[in-house]
């Protein structure tokens, strides 16, 4: 489309306070989760429980970023699923490579 | 010919495949950005999951935190490696600096989504204001990362005594300061290699993002989007910028927490 060299006729709409409030709320949630992770890093013992909690909290944060900030939740369902469903492959990659890594550990040490 | 010159996508001769349609109710640019990001997710996932695999193939440091010394025999505890803050030389402040970096990147993601919201309302002055804040956040994050890398490469005052095979193939035992791709004072060689590779690849994405943010800020400021009739470019660059934040959330967990 050609850019026409005319004065803009775009209508500026007023701020959608409700939407803006929701953005700040999401930001607050992301910050709270990060602070919680920090506290956990220094108060809990290192181990499989702590690591599992870290990864769950991270996925929770990722959900907020994708749904609220990237508005993936507002897209039509086919687009939503064509982004989310391929990520299922990663679940297997995690399982396979952690198994691989621990087997290398057993061989080496 | 001129008899068929109706609006794009309406002509029965053009039909569904004639162009001008919006499959999945998203414009061409947004769809392509989403599928590019999907492929980028797989790239980063491959890196980060490899990090996990290599990490579990080494023993973890099990001793007390205050007696930690770097060794290529075991994987270091991140909070004992990343504990320096600019201008506070010698102060033990575990994860404080990386916490600040995370905060900066999340904040710039928030200002980005506010710019997108302003774009939906065609509000040029709000778009320009929030784009500028986002741009500042991105540049600040990159500067922090530059310092972080520089500190990681130059190392601590004491260093660590390591036995390793150097780049000439000789077996040497010496005090190692900092990090390079052959040896580092913190842990096994793979630790620094993965750090450089993954945070470097992420930093490269941030750098590209900063260029895109500047482009978007500039075009919004001079009124290109007003003339074009929509602010969709803010949305597309916003998607990319949020993705950079998304990746950092995972890098932060895997490198600095676990």
Number of strands of chain A: 0
Number of domains of chain A: 2
In DSSP terms (H or I, runs of 4 or more residues), the helix count of chain B works out at: 7
The biggest beta sheet of chain B, please? 2 strands, antiparallel
Number of strands of chain B: 2
Distance between the termini of chain B: 66 Å
If interface size is counted as residues with C-beta under 8 Å from the partner's C-beta, which chains form the largest one? Answer: A-B, 59 and 60 residues
Radius of gyration over C-alpha positions of chain A, nearest whole angstrom: 22 Å
Q: By CATH's scheme, which homologous superfamily of chain B applies?
A: Cytochrome c oxidase, subunit III, four-helix bundle
Principal-axis shape of chain A: flat
Q: Structural class of the secondary structure composition of chain A?
A: mainly alpha
Distance between the termini of chain A: 64 Å
The share of residues in helices of chain B is 55-70%
Membrane topology (chain A): Multi-pass membrane protein
Transmembrane segments (chain A): 48-66, 78-98
Pfam families (chain A): COX4_pro
InterPro entries (chain A): Cyt_c_oxidase_su4_prok (IPR005171)
Write the layout of secondary structure elements.
The complex is a heterodimer of chains A (109) and B (258).
Chain A: H1 17-43, H2 48-69, H3 77-84, H4 88-108
Chain B: H1 28-56, H2 78-81, H3 96-120, H4 124-154, E1 160-165, E2 171-176, H5 189-222, H6 224-228, H7 232-257
Helix pairs in contact in B: 1-5, 1-7, 3-4, 3-7, 4-5, 5-7
Protein name (chain A): Cytochrome c oxidase subunit IV
Transmembrane segments (chain A): 48-66, 78-98
Subcellular location (chain A): Cell membrane
Q: What would you note in describing this structure?
A:
The complex is a heterodimer of chains A (109) and B (258). Chain A is mainly alpha-helical. Helices cover 72% and strands 0% of the residues of chain A. Chain A has 4 helices and no strands. The radius of gyration of chain A is 22 Å and the shape is flat. Chain B has a single domain, classed as Four Helix Bundle (Hemerythrin (Met), subunit A) (Up-down Bundle), CATH 1.20.120. Chain B contains 7 helices and 2 strands; from the N terminus they run ααααββααα. Chain B has helices at residues 28-56, 78-81, 96-120, 124-154, 189-222, 224-228, 232-257; strands at 160-165, 171-176. Chain B has a two-stranded antiparallel ribbon with strand order 1-2. In chain B, 37% of the residues are buried. Residues 1-11 of chain B have low confidence and may be disordered. Chain B: Belongs to the cytochrome c oxidase subunit 3 family. Chain B: GO terms for molecular function: cytochrome-c oxidase activity. Chain B: It comes from Algoriphagus aquaeductus.
């Amino acid at each position: 489309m050609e850019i026409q060299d005319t004065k803009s006729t775009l209508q500026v709409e007023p701020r959608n306070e409700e939407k803006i409030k929701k953005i700040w709320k999401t930001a607050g949630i992301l910050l709270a989760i990060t602070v919680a992770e920090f506290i956990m890093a220094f108060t809990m013992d290192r181990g499989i429980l702590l690591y599992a909690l870290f990864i769950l909290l991270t996925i929770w944060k990722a959900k907020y970023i994708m749904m609220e900030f990237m508005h993936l939740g507002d897209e039509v369902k086919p687009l939503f699923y064509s982004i989310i469903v391929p990520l299922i492959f990663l679940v297997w990659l995690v399982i396979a490579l952690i198994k691989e890594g621990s087997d290398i550990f057993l061989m080496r040490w | 010919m001129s008899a068929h010159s109706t609006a794009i996508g309406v002509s029965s001769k053009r039909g569904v495949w004639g162009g001008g349609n919006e499959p999945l109710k998203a414009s061409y640019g947004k769809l392509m950005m989403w599928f590019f990001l999907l492929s980028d997710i797989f790239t980063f996932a491959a890196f980060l999951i490899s990090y996990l695999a290599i990490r579990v193939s080494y023993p973890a440091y099990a001793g007390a935190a205050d007696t930690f010394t770097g060794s290529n025999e075991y994987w270091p505890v991140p909070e004992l490696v990343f504990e320096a803050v600019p201008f506070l030389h010698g102060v033990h402040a575990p994860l404080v600096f990386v916490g600040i970096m995370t905060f900066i990147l999340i904040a710039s993601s928030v200002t980005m989504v506010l710019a997108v919201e302003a774009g939906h309302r065609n509000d040029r002055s709000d778009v320009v204001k929030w784009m500028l804040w986002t741009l500042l956040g991105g540049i600040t994050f990159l500067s922090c990362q530059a310092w972080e890398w520089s500190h990681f490469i130059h190392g601590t005052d004491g260093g660590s005594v390591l036995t390793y095979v150097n780049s000439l193939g000789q077996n040497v035992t010496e005090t190692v300061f900092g990090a390079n791709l052959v040896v580092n004072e913190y842990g096994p060689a793979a630790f620094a290699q993965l750090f450089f590779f993954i945070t470097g690849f992420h930093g490269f994405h941030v750098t590209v993002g900063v260029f895109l943010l500047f482009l978007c800020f500039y075009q919004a400021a001079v009124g290109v989007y007003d003339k074009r009739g929509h602010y969709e470019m803010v949305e597309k660059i916003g998607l990319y910028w949020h993705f950079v934040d998304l990746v950092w959330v995972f890098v932060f967990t895997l490198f600095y927490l676990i």
